[in-house]
């Protein structure tokens, strides 16, 4: 189920044995001219041999082979029903029976891609094609179609079939005739550069520079000898006719963005046989980008890495650290410090890894080396230097371990994500007003649980793990658990105090995956060890239960994020008497590719409409949870000339954050805690959904209408409509939030009471 509304995009072609050479060339040209694009490619076929499908799969990592049923088209009225080519011309119409995608781009197999297709990927509306050459620009050429989901329906497929069986179309135009008869010229007209037919290119004149797709219409195909008079056009086709080794070498030599799936697919075998170092590094980086750390280690360790090149050693060090092979990682990273231009960054990694291992002294020393290097100072060096500089011991009596609870959490540094800063305190407030060291012993989730750390935990009354999205694979990857708490199995088994997982979230984005075996085994052990296992939304509950054996599934229960009930747990909380005439807006930019896909420009355009419209009802201000969040403000001003005042919440403490969100009429947020924190202090919210957790929360409170997908084609209109309603009837909306909090607070209060009793026993 796609909760975020992120578009599923695919290419599609009908391929048979006769047109296979053209299709293989099409795939090569697509990869070499658009190396940043890698979507599913649907191959419709009826007679392809297994060896042909193997050749196709060598040229694309995401081939989806779908056999057609030729007999389905037997009843279609055809101009020449005995003609082999005429019969097969209809098989591409099977695309209208596909239901797995929101946008499908069809390409004829006699095409070659010469330019950028990103504009096609961004199309959101209707049925798009290039008008047919020589037909007064009124009919479409079906060689390229961009089909949106409103046409990928049973109803439209039935009309296609009905038209084909009736014969009420230009019979000599086959599939194209049917579509022109149905659409009656009502289609989005694309520039001719996206389906530049061969007939436009007759003679020896050079092709226009902006051609994106060249189409070899007609009987004579380039792979069968071509046609006299089209030497220039056919030379463009033959440019991509090469053997597989040549193709891979050329792809790996490309500069700029290349999709990690393509890099891995084309590069892994070549570099393993001794490809050049740059290609090796690019493929290794792709493995890291995909979270495939073990494969990155295998790739790099079976290759000879030149001692004088820093990048391969740095990448291997990163991969080894992500699999918790820290001694080997340190050795590789030390080799990588030799290059002056990047040494500060590498020292930052060494400092962080030493801190993860519990060695603050080494972390401090590495951070200091990074700060003193002659390269640009790395931010991580600054953070680790401050983190390990120590702080004055608190005055007064030292905490008594037997009076404390241990708390594993993600403790955010200054200028880190504002939502993460508030989480540890909010969890502690569920168990009582004292949130400091007298009651709590802190264990950072990213620090590996060592023997010493285990002894300290076992000296406490119990252990609380939470809150936040700790079940996420990539913030600080490790090979011990494959989630955010870096805990080896053997030490987890030896925790002998009551253990509670409290308000943790399963935080994988659409398209993300875990190191499944390691994560599942760690999760199973954690569930078996826990006295309480509470996840912060029912979506997370369902996801985690699926990963556990039947006997452990019932242990997983619902425990809302404590930030959603702040009004009930913050000591002395008072609701504001009056709220400012403002709306706070937040956007998120971590993992932007996973959030926006190809729709970012459309998102900014729609948001610009909403910001202007909402300005008539309240002052719109921008709530930046992290430094990167400010990109939206820059893009809005750069593209549309709209300026927003910024609230730098990443610099605020927790009291400021709650007060800031309580003192506004509405919050429109993309980050999870740009929804949950304002909700918790009684403020109405609208969620810009780019992550499943946003939808999960709105489902839990029974208000899915308070969300709108960042991919929605009517985002600006819908957002304005929802926001204006909540602003105009603000008192009722606030009262509604208060009511919706009550069941969350009831669950939290009951769970906390049971755990307090358990920890006191």
Automatic annotation (TrEMBL):
- Which range is the signal sequence, renumbered to this chain? none
Annotated Polysaccharide pyruvyl transferase domain residues = 463-689
A single GO molecular-function term is: glycosyltransferase activity
The lineage's top-level taxon is Bacteria
**Would you tell me the protein name for this molecule?**
Polysaccharide pyruvyl transferase domain-containing protein
Q: Which organism is it from?
A: Streptomyces smaragdinus
